[in-house]
Prior knowledge:
The structure is a homodimer. In chain A, 41% of the residues lie in helices and 13% in strands. Chain A is an alpha+beta fold. Chain A is globular. The model of chain A has no long low-confidence stretch (mean pLDDT 95). Chains A and B meet through helix 11, strand 12, helix 18 and helix 19 of A and helix 11, strand 12, helix 18 and helix 19 of B. Strand 12 of chain A pairs antiparallel with strand 12 (328-333) of chain B, so a sheet runs across the interface.
Amino acid sequence: xxxxxxxxxxxxxxxxxxxxxxxxxxxxxxxxxxxxxxxxxxxxxxxxxxxxxxxxxxxxxxxxxxxxxxxxxxxxxxxxxxxxxxxxxxxxxxxxxxxxxxxxxxxxxxxxxxxxxxxxxxxxxxxxxxxxxxxxxxxxxxxxxxxxxxxxxxxxxxxxxxxxxxxxxxxxxxxxxxxxxxxxxxxxxxxxxxxxxxxxxxxxxxxxxxxxxxxxxxxxxxxxxxxxxxxxxxxxxxxxxxxxxxxxxxxxxxxxxxxxxxxxxxxxxxxxxxxxxxxxxxxxxxxxxxxxxxxxxxxxxxxxxxxxxxxxxxxxxxxxxxxxxxxxxxxxxxxxxxxxxxxxxxxxxxxxxxxxxxxxxxxxxxxxxxxxxxxxxxxxxxxxxxxxxxxxxxxxxxxxxxxxxxxxxxxxxxxxxxxxxxxxxxxxxxxxxxxxxxxxxxxxxxxxxxxxxxxxxxxxxxxxxxxxxxxxxxxxxxxxxxxxxxx
Amino acid sequence: xxxxxxxxxxxxxxxxxxxxxxxxxxxxxxxxxxxxxxxxxxxxxxxxxxxxxxxxxxxxxxxxxxxxxxxxxxxxxxxxxxxxxxxxxxxxxxxxxxxxxxxxxxxxxxxxxxxxxxxxxxxxxxxxxxxxxxxxxxxxxxxxxxxxxxxxxxxxxxxxxxxxxxxxxxxxxxxxxxxxxxxxxxxxxxxxxxxxxxxxxxxxxxxxxxxxxxxxxxxxxxxxxxxxxxxxxxxxxxxxxxxxxxxxxxxxxxxxxxxxxxxxxxxxxxxxxxxxxxxxxxxxxxxxxxxxxxxxxxxxxxxxxxxxxxxxxxxxxxxxxxxxxxxxxxxxxxxxxxxxxxxxxxxxxxxxxxxxxxxxxxxxxxxxxxxxxxxxxxxxxxxxxxxxxxxxxxxxxxxxxxxxxxxxxxxxxxxxxxxxxxxxxxxxxxxxxxxxxxxxxxxxxxxxxxxxxxxxxxxxxxxxxxxxxxxxxxxxxxxxxxxxxxx
Lengths: 487, 487
């Protein structure tokens, strides 16, 4: 921040509010004063004292338990999460700490989302936002958290987790969490007392950042993974959603979230592990990245020409199957298959994955008329965008900003300041004034869409066969793999 | 040959007989005097005037027709070929010439196996061997060729293909085809009049070359593809065999042949298309091939540790599914999957494919007690051999000779000469005296075999799901792919 202020010449007094967007559920155990346990000398070497990143997948046994007990007890909240709580979410991670290192659990005065922890550090006041609580910690405005009886059914020691280590006071997004502390001012050069917004999620703040503040337009935040945000007027059950939270994205609407666990990560894996030297040499010679060489060659292929089909489950499947044990599949290879063939098939697989999510929304009555994309990938890869338009059969607009999480967070900062102090009184106002809608549009090409319709049917058939229990080969392979580790 | 005689110092008078082994079905159209049509100026640019290599797969529509008509007519010979004639075989290729270039078909006085054509060029006499006729041209000692009525049902112009362009006189392997002609002597420096054996197949002559002349031991010739030879006392129906021919391998036995369309070809494809620069750099640095780096790293993995499963159908599936439209599959990838993981999974997939063939033999009552392997791959890749032993649960012996097709052909040359002239009177005699049995043995490791049993069950389940019609996705992808070519 000091460097940013210096290089841009911005006067700190022109910074009227601050918003923080963060990945979620990324959580950590701390002492009562917010010191992360991992910073205490006694716990440095204890894995569970450290931050658990959103993509931490080791709490699957806990997620299984959470789901079994919820189903057995008929917990009413399970529907809001598409029928399954992910191993990535808050209570699965917390319960894993309890199971695998009870002392760390015991010593954790607070279990807290990193988003809220950052705001705490900056303001000196612990607050909890309703967005991460709603999406990741099974909280809702109407029903609060699951009952203590439910938590006790998971583990007797877990009965009072909310009251002992969390908080039942959730502050709605768009509110002010506090003010910039003296300590934060000393770190950053920003003014003490500057309003700070309640913490929010990097993906969710992207919706206002791309001017989506009403139902009908799905926002896809594309990066290492895909996050899908859609607003609805009513609460309905959508298969395999990450969650739905009233006021969770834009106050006054139900904010639905879905996700694909790996997108850019798959392309990155492919370039790192599966591309022979000639492509690297071509990239070096032309001074471009390997992705560009592959994209150019893959662009010359017609849809269906490579004869391949992939399931994009390299990091499990978040929506709609909610199963981290699922793994990737590639089918159709011959001795003539080339790296650009596979690269294109992987892109298409992620687009099919997005279409499954759109279908789930529309089956539940939530229309997806068009799509706005943002994040790190869209502006770099035109082929990717065209394939997403062709596969989904929907017009696709690319956000102008490449930093929508930052822009959306800044909007919430402006709302924390309020109109009276040069900001805005609502996130809708901020969105209308601070965002520029995208200019780059991709229209589906009809004959591509037809071919992709046929390929999508094949994708769905394998998706259902391997994802819905007809053949649990992926899960069994993981069990065998796990067995070799413990030998 | 002149250089061979010169560098070895062998006296041509010590060469008492000559045998020729060749790939099959590799066939070509010729004039009445044996001139290949492709050598005539008028036909140089006509693809169907040229030789069709064994792995030519473009005659699938003709193979489909051959099978449909045979099934409709209840042709009794279909069972001998596992219920399906492959697009690789003789009549599918011949019919494709007729369909796609009738003039070439018309002008072809002879349609002939390259093996027989070579012997023709060397002796001046056209002969036809019973081995390729039996395995690739639906001929048997007891029933001859299919009826003219059957051929007419395929295409009226095809009715007399045997009488017009082939021969009903088939000479048994182990016989003499003729003598070295003056022309051949001028080419080579070998003596005019040297006995020449009836042509044979490179894979099939490997059985006597590794001293397998009785039932119970399966010979696997491993190279770009796998060929499996097993002798039986009786004629039984085995699912998806390439064929069974009485006296086809060793006189007095039924010679069963099965095959896997791609083995070494898959590993070669992988190294060429899917291995990143670091492995190439490591290979260059150490002065070894990339395969060796991959093999070393893959050797450090426990069975099942990589979590992957592949179907080895990069070039279709010959046995037991007899379907060239099938394609490769790889399943189980995560963001942590490495090239050696995949390399090992591909090796394992080919071993599972071999086990399917063994199971088919044993289901039909033909015991496979042990395995002898030969060909280009086994001596180069110890990991491959251990995996085959572990997957099949059988002792595996590697042939001492790296040139079993040459050795086996030489044995048949010795038999053509006969004992009276320094050779042998039977192939069994020649095998006992001229072969050395392998010294390198691989025993299955019990705990590996247990893990592979579990993985094999998974392989079988996907094999049956995708190979037996539950989900014809591979075929449909090829149809879509074909559609993009004709746009």
